[in-house]
Specification:
Helices cover 8% and strands 43% of the residues. The strands form four sheets. It has an 18-stranded mixed beta sheet that branches. An eleven-stranded antiparallel beta sheet has the order 19-20-21-22-23-24-27-28-29-30-31. It has 542 residues and is mainly beta. A hairpin with a 5-residue loop joins strand 12 and strand 13. The chain has two domains: 173 residues, Jelly Rolls; 320 residues, no CATH class.
Length: 542
């Protein structure tokens, strides 16, 4: 029986960013530009490069403009007839205001800097790389994003995340919905044009993630981690993770990998939801999970749902597991007597993206057990383990994979009498096997060890009957980009190692049109206490 759990098991077993604002701000005028140290000071002409302090205001003339440079490489370009102010240069954020006029921002510090631009009608929290803001004399604000994402809040308390190739209008009475910018619009810019292939569904997923991230201060029992690292391929990565508690019976981990040189963002989340309240200390959650399996007494709590989602903002892979309550089962065949075990475990792997949308089987609910799927989603693989439902008094294991038409179909089924020593010794009884769609039979020979023996680098690959494929490469990488040296060859247990190594997951599919998903994850956040907070500068590896 083939098991195709590519990365879920890693998260089941494993159990802040530096927010410093740029300290030096330099103004370079072009034409008639004036500045003052605060609202109580007089305006004075600016003749050359001038350092700006907190509270400074800038005013450009009718035919003039100015540039504002930050020490992290970010730049603000002010248009004519603009009034701009530096409001906050504390460690927590960099805050500015545009009272009237036009500002073009090119932000290079996606995680290292937290820019916030306030206008009379809106507050724009910069999570992107390039955008324009224009403020009219009546305070009405228009903004368009060339690349990246910007969070916008209006005076009525509404909030939106505006992504690449989108624009939004904010009046004193509220905001409109974000809408797309035509690629013929000069504001779209060259950087925006490749984004045209991104579907709205992908934008919405990323938008939702960022909105949740923005509200993390409101969540209880939170930890966060941020650091700069090198991945296994020599690329610098800004890694950020946030541990959230949406409710007392659930935790959610957000993890983001930003590669500035390639303007790339890969992110994902992990969700674990339980039947009742879990400990505030996430270290203790593993004990709750352990009690689900082979406990001699009825567990007081158990996991109900598990989800891992990873995306490059265009394509995604999601793996979910649904658990029912543990039930008393006779495990005499294992010499264990009566023990508690989940009544059923239902695992699914779901792919999505533009390439998936045009593939056979996209959106099909056949054999998925789901009530809905998006048009760009399909279930690639499903495994069900149940007790006493399919076969009275026994376990039944069923695997479903996509067939030649891209539709889920039964590939393998076995029943197991867990109370029989003979049946356990024989591995159960196979009741179904379809070799024509078995990925284990279809997948050609390949090397599981891309870096060779002695390295924590393991590749899993499966080819399906419709010609689609899914791959997962797992590496343990130091902050300096070195792959962990090990004895022998990597296996699933290799990646449960604790210590100063990040887990890099490189996920691919033939349906992803040449793209992959590449996420760097630091498992140590799962060992932090409920009140732990770390930053890139203060984080110490155990």
């Amino acid at each position: 029986m083939k098991s195709i759990y590519f990365f879920t098991v890693l998260f089941l077993a494993a159990q802040t960013a530096s927010a410093s604002a740029p300290r030096e701000i330099v103004l370079v005028p072009e034409g008639a530009v004036e500045a003052r140290q605060g609202a109580a000071s007089a305006w004075a002409p600016v003749q050359g490069r001038t350092r700006l302090a907190e509270g400074s205001e800038i005013r450009t003339g009718k035919n003039s403009k100015a540039a504002v440079f930050f020490s992290d490489g970010s730049t603000f370009l002010l248009g004519n007839s603009s009034i701009f102010a530096v409001e906050d240069t504390s460690k927590k954020k960099a805050g500015f205001s545009l009272k009237v006029g036009r500002l073009k921002a090119i932000v290079s510090g996606y995680f290292a800097s937290r820019f916030q631009v306030r206008t009379p009608a809106a507050v724009c929290a910069v999570r992107g790389t390039e955008f324009d803001i224009e403020v009219g004399k009546d305070g009405a604000t228009g903004m368009n994003v060339t690349e990246g994402l910007v969070e916008v809040n209006d005076s009525k308390g509404a909030m939106a995340v505006v992504s690449s190739e989108e624009k939004i209008k904010i009046g004193m009475d509220g905001m409109s919905r974000p809408e797309g910018i035509s690629l013929n619009d000069e504001r779209a810019g060259e950087a925006a044009r490749p984004m045209a292939v991104r579907q709205e569904t992908a934008r919405e997923r990323t938008r939702t993630m960022l909105e949740e991230l923005r509200n993390r201060e409101l969540k209880a029992n939170e930890s966060q981690l941020g650091k700069d690292s090198i991945d296994a391929f020599g690329r610098r990565v800004r890694l950020e993770e946030y541990l959230l508690r949406p409710s007392d019976s659930e935790f959610k981990l957000l993890f983001l990998s930003r590669r500035e040189e390639s303007h790339r963002l890969d992110w994902g989340h992990l969700i674990e939801r339980f039947n009742s309240k879990i400990p505030d200390d996430i270290n203790e959650v593993g004990k709750v999970i352990d009690s689900m399996y082979f406990s001699a007494t009825a567990p007081t709590n158990w996991m109900k749902y598990f989800e891992v989602y990873m995306t490059n903002t265009v394509d995604s892979i999601k793996e979910t597991i649904d658990f029912t309550a543990p039930v008393a089962i006779n495990f005499a065949g294992y010499g264990a007597g009566t023990r508690y075990y989940p009544g059923s475990i239902d695992y699914r792997q779901i792919l999505s993206g533009p390439g998936v949308a045009v593939a056979a089987g996209a959106g099909s609910l056949t054999n998925t057990g789901l009530t809905s799927l998006a048009a760009d989603e399909r279930v690639q693989f499903r495994q069900i383990q149940d007790y006493n439902t399919t076969t009275a008094g026994q376990f039944t294991f069923t695997q479903k994979v996509v067939n030649a038409s891209g539709i889920l179909n039964d590939m393998y089924q076995v029943t197991l009498n867990q109370a029989s020593l003979a049946d356990v010794g024989a591995g159960g009884t196979a009741t179904l096997y379809n070799a024509a769609i078995d990925p284990e039979a279809l997948t050609p020979a390949y090397s599981n060890y891309p870096s060779g023996p002695g390295k924590a680098d393991f590749l899993a690959y499966s080819l399906y009957a419709d010609g689609s494929s899914v791959s997962s490469r797992k590496l343990l990488v130091s902050n300096e980009g070195d792959i962990l040296n090990i004895g022998g060859s990597a296996n699933s247990n290799t990646f449960l190692k604790e210590g100063s190594f990040n887990l890099e997951l490189v996920l691919g599919s033939s349906l992803f049109q040449g793209r992959n998903i590449d996420i760097l994850f630091a498992p140590e956040i799962l060992t932090q206490k409920k009140d732990a907070t770390t930053t890139a500068d203060s984080f110490a590896i155990n």
